[in-house]
Amino acid sequence: AAGLWSEVNRCGQNGDFARALKSVNKILQINKDDVTALQCKVVCLIQNGNFKEALGVINTHAKVLTSDVIAFEKAYCEYRLNRIESALKTIQSASQQTDKLKELYGQVLYRLERYDDCLAAYRDLIRNSQDEYEEERKTNLSAVVAAQSTWEKVVPEDLGLREATYELCYNSACALIGQGKLNEAMKKLQKAEELCRQSLSEDSDVTEEDIEAELAIIHGQMAYIMQLQGRTEDALQLYNQIIKLKPTDVGLLAVIANNIITINKDQNVFDSKKKVKLTNAEGVEHKLSKKQLQAIEFNKALLAMYTNQADQCRKLSASLQSQSPEHLLPVLIQAAQLCREKQHAKAVGLLQDFADQHPANAAEIKLTMAQLKIAQGSVTKACMILRSIEELQHKPGMVSALVTMYSHEEDIDSAIEVFTQAIQWYQQYQARTNHGCCVFQPKSPVHLSLIREAANFKLKHGRKKEAISDLEELWKQNPKDVHTLAQLISAYSLVDPEKAKVLSKHLPSSDTMSLKVDVDALENSHGATYVRKKAGKLTGDNQQKEQGQGEVKKKKKKKKGKLPKNYDPKVTPDPERWLPMRERSYYRGRKKGKKKDQVGKGTQGSTTTGSSELDASRTASSPPTSPRPGSGAAVSATSNVIPPRHQKPAGAPATKKKQQQKKKKGAKGGW
């Protein structure tokens, strides 16, 4: 047995755990309950990557291998087998918390996304540990801070970590992305890339392909920043470059594929269907956070909707809703799918049920319902839904939307009621916040803005008396507001002229009004220069008039109209020349072509030489038609004469034939 133990010790020091395992098994054949031998066997199995077998040995010999003896090994096997909850229980049940268990505890908390507890655990480790693993602990600490910033939107505190490694730079960049500081994050990633190249190039065994594989995650984050900045083409190019490298990290590939799908949206669906396969790789669920996995599932459901896979879309969205009943996206996807199937009423009913079950999310759902009603043309019903959202009733955007919609429906009374309710809400809110401290309280800018918009709306729609009360309220708040006073006088002039006269006394006199206008700058401006030039011209004209030329207006030179090339001034123009050819009195229809005249209705080979002689339309008694082009017949000034405007110049048919011959020649030489 002593020889076997020495063999185990020697193999362990050399890292040959496969041979060490054989020696341990021989020892266990002698004494199957040897605690040290069982511990060695578990360690050898872990070093060889046989975590399941190692955990089996621990569970089989649970009486001998108690939690005090082998707690770390058991928790580590459970952690590597992705049994995170079990690993946490094993760590917490250990009687003594060693440094190894604390390290593993931090990793387990990170995987469970308990970032606050994880941060506290790593801080305690860094404070109480002094060994060669300090840099790794700081890297893990920065990763926790980055996760808090990204997933929990917590503003990260400055930990004072010196960003000497590319891992620390990368984590710092991720934290900045979570805060929305994209330009700073890009600079950090560029620094991380530089540090990574420097550190890896020092190792002679590392190839350029290895460096690119290590940089893939940094480049992926760079592409994500480009996507957030709207540089989708650059982002897409970088994403595809990373995919071509075929990195072994399935989590990275899944995230990149998902981001490409979000860029494609409802376009390039074939590419999205190929990319979605990367998100289904084995082990992806253990590499990504819950929010990342959820986002991927949402995009799968949307892709199913875009590819008209209605059943698949309903199945995925229903699964998502069962996992997160309070989440909005699953029900919105289901409603969108129903709308694509022209089932708008069913979609509205589905949204209404969700709003009743989850009042906290009712506002966003009701906004979607209103949009569907507007799409159906039911504007009044949409207004009713919007007015039922109590937390948004007083918001300026909501008031503006409702007033616009009611105005479109010509329901002025309802629009004014919307203004009144919003103004009353601000009055009540002000009374609650001021607690009646004094008699006069200045109104908030939003409140005053609503009163002004209400007054303008009422004036526009002829509600002068109602507008006057609003304008008086505004004037009380700011007696120096000349614009409001002018509006008030204008409104009173139509209702109570005497009151308008009294109020007009409050207007400032023209002498007291000082307009700070730079006259020289105004005259030298582009528009003023143009006006001044015109004014100068007019002044010169006036001087000419005074010199005795009288009030004769300068006549504009008329351009001579263009005449036809064959225009003959001796010929009277055709009075019907402005009418279309078909509407003219002398129009006789199109002349039939020569080829058609030669086609006979008899047997094949028969001729129609006498057809032109028997044609009654060609007799002398028939009225003359328009002269043939190129004919030398004299033109008489009768009503049947076609004017030169519609005559073709002589030699036109010959030219046409030449052109046809040229075309034929060219056709022979073609490919």
TrEMBL record:
<keyword id="KW-0677">Repeat</keyword>
<dbReference type="InterPro" id="IPR026270">
    <property type="entry name" value="SRP72"/>
</dbReference>
<dbReference type="InterPro" id="IPR013699">
    <property type="entry name" value="Signal_recog_part_SRP72_RNA-bd"/>
</dbReference>
<dbReference type="Pfam" id="PF08492">
    <property type="entry name" value="SRP72"/>
</dbReference>
<dbReference type="InterPro" id="IPR031545">
    <property type="entry name" value="SRP72_TPR-like"/>
</dbReference>
<keyword id="KW-0733">Signal recognition particle</keyword>
<feature type="compositionally biased region" description="Basic residues">
    <location>
        <begin position="655"/>
        <end position="671"/>
    </location>
</feature>
<keyword id="KW-0256">Endoplasmic reticulum</keyword>
<dbReference type="GO" id="GO:0043022">
    <property type="term" value="F:ribosome binding"/>
</dbReference>
<dbReference type="GO" id="GO:0005783">
    <property type="term" value="C:endoplasmic reticulum"/>
</dbReference>
<feature type="region of interest" description="Disordered">
    <location>
        <begin position="532"/>
        <end position="671"/>
    </location>
</feature>
<feature type="coiled-coil region">
    <location>
        <begin position="84"/>
        <end position="139"/>
    </location>
</feature>
<comment type="similarity">
    <text>Belongs to the SRP72 family.</text>
</comment>
<dbReference type="GO" id="GO:0008312">
    <property type="term" value="F:7S RNA binding"/>
</dbReference>
<feature type="repeat" description="TPR">
    <location>
        <begin position="216"/>
        <end position="249"/>
    </location>
</feature>
<dbReference type="Pfam" id="PF17004">
    <property type="entry name" value="SRP_TPR_like"/>
</dbReference>
<keyword id="KW-0175">Coiled coil</keyword>
<feature type="domain" description="Signal recognition particle SRP72 subunit RNA-binding">
    <location>
        <begin position="533"/>
        <end position="589"/>
    </location>
</feature>
<feature type="compositionally biased region" description="Basic residues">
    <location>
        <begin position="553"/>
        <end position="563"/>
    </location>
</feature>
<dbReference type="InterPro" id="IPR011990">
    <property type="entry name" value="TPR-like_helical_dom_sf"/>
</dbReference>
<dbReference type="GO" id="GO:0005786">
    <property type="term" value="C:signal recognition particle, endoplasmic reticulum targeting"/>
</dbReference>
<feature type="compositionally biased region" description="Basic and acidic residues">
    <location>
        <begin position="565"/>
        <end position="586"/>
    </location>
</feature>
<dbReference type="Pfam" id="PF13181">
    <property type="entry name" value="TPR_8"/>
</dbReference>
<keyword id="KW-0687">Ribonucleoprotein</keyword>
<feature type="compositionally biased region" description="Low complexity">
    <location>
        <begin position="600"/>
        <end position="634"/>
    </location>
</feature>
<keyword id="KW-0963">Cytoplasm</keyword>
<dbReference type="GO" id="GO:0006614">
    <property type="term" value="P:SRP-dependent cotranslational protein targeting to membrane"/>
</dbReference>
<keyword id="KW-0802">TPR repeat</keyword>
<dbReference type="InterPro" id="IPR019734">
    <property type="entry name" value="TPR_rpt"/>
</dbReference>
<protein>
    <recommendedName>
        <fullName>Signal recognition particle subunit SRP72</fullName>
    </recommendedName>
</protein>
